[in-house]
Amino acid sequence: MEPVLKVESVSKVFHDRVGNDIIAIEDLTFEVAEGELLVLLGPSGCGKTTLLRIVAGLETATNGRILLDNKEIKGPGRERGMVFQHYSSFPWLTVSENIKFGLKYRPDIKKEEGDKVAEYFIDLVGLHGFEESYISQLSGGMQQRVSIARTLATDPRILLMDEPFGALDTQNREFLQLQLLEAQTVAKKTIIFVTHDVEEAIFLADRLLILTARPAKIKKELTISLPKPRTLEMKTSAEFMDLKREVLSYTRKEAQKTDMLWRKTPVQPEKFRDEHKFSMRRHK
Ligand SMILES: Nc1ncnc2c1ncn2[C@@H]1O[C@H](COP(=O)(O)OP(=O)(O)OP(=O)(O)O)[C@@H](O)[C@H]1O
Ligand SMILES: [Mg+2]
C-alpha cells in the first residue's frame, strides 16, 4: 500500500538575528503508512516542532519535499489537523462551539447533526458537562482536551500532534493517551505524534523514530510490537522495561549533546563545587 505521507530529504535552515545559520533539520527522510501511529522522539530544541510545522504547511522546507497521498505539500490544508504544543482553542467560543467550528468543513456532516457529533467528541476527551463553558473557565488540561477534540472532529487525513500532553498531570495524560489510541483504532487515523517523553513514546507508538540533537536526523528506528489494544498495566511489564532501557540508551546521549549546545562550559559537578562556591550561599 502507498504510504500516506512521504518526507523526502527535508532540511531546514533558520537564520538568527546576526545572520548565523541555525540548521534545525538535516536531510530527513521517512514515510508514514495508512493507519500508523508514528512517534518522533527527540530532545528539546532538536527541530520537532519545525518538522511538524513544515508538514502542516505553516513553514517551508529549505530543501526536500513532502508528499501527502503523492501530492506535494505547498501550504496549509484541511487534510492535515495539527494539535499544537500550546493550547490553541478559540477563547470567545464555548467548548461545544469550538468543536462545531471545524465541522463546517466536513461535507459528510449535515448541519443538524452538528450537536450530536460535537457531543461524541466532547465525551471522547472526557469533557461531558462542560459543553457550554468558555475556554477561560477551563483548566489547562481541559483546554488541551478541547484542542484535541476540535482537531479530531475535523477528521483530517493525517493528525499532527506536537507534545499535546506535555503540560498535563499523569492522570490527564494517561486518560488522553488511551483515548488517542482508541481514536486511532476506531477511526483508523494516521498520526504523527511528537514527544520527548520516552515512556509515552513507547506506549503510543506503532513505530518510533528517535531523533538526534539539533539538527534533527534519524538516529534509530524501532518498531514497537507491544500488543494492541495497549493497557496502562503494560507500562510496568518486563517487555516495556526492556524497550525503555533500549530507547534511553539512545536518547541520553542526544540529551547530553543538547546540554553541550546550550552551555558555554560543560557540566562538571566537581568543578562546580571547587570554583563556584560563591554561587550558592551556605547555610550552616
Ligand atoms: N522562526 C525561527 N527562527 C530562528 N530559529 C528558529 C525558529 N524556529 C525554530 N528555530 C530554532 O530551530 C531549532 C528547533 O526548534 P523547534 O521548535 O523545532 O524544536 P523542538 O524540537 O520542537 O523543541 P521543544 O522540544 O523544546 O519544543 C531551535 O534551535 C530553535 O531556536
Ligand atoms: Mg517543540
Number of strands: 10
Give the overall average pLDDT. 91
Main-sheet strand order equals: 6-7-8-3-9-10
Helix content: 25-40%
The rounded distance between the terminal residues' Cα atoms is 69 Å
Radius of gyration of CA atoms, rounded to a whole number: 21 Å
Describe it for me?
The protein has 284 residues and is an alpha/beta fold. 35% of the residues lie in helices and 22% in strands. It is built from eight helices and ten strands. The strands form two sheets. A six-stranded mixed β-sheet has the order 6-7-8-3-9-10, sandwiched between helices. A four-stranded antiparallel β-sheet has the order 2-1-4-5, covered by helices on one side. Helix 2 crosses helix 3 (114-124). The protein starts with a strand and ends in a 9-residue tail after the last helix. The mean pLDDT is 91. It binds adenosine-5'-triphosphate and magnesium ion. Adenosine-5'-triphosphate binds at residues 14, 22, 24, 42, 44-50, 85, 196, 214.
Keyphrases for this structure?
binds adenosine-5'-triphosphate, 8 helices, globular, 6-stranded mixed sheet, alpha/beta, binds magnesium ion, 284 residues
Sequence-ordered SSE layout with sheet pairings:
Layout: E1 5-15, E2 21-32, E3 37-41, H1 48-56, E4 63-68, E5 71-72, E6 80-83, H2 95-103, H3 114-124, H4 140-153, E7 158-162, H5 170-186, E8 190-195, H6 198-204, E9 207-211, E10 218-223, H7 238-262, H8 269-275
Parallel strand pairs: 3-8, 3-9, 6-7, 7-8
Antiparallel strand pairs: 1-2, 1-4, 4-5, 9-10
Helix pairs in contact: 2-3, 2-4, 3-4, 6-7
The protein binds adenosine-5'-triphosphate and magnesium ion.
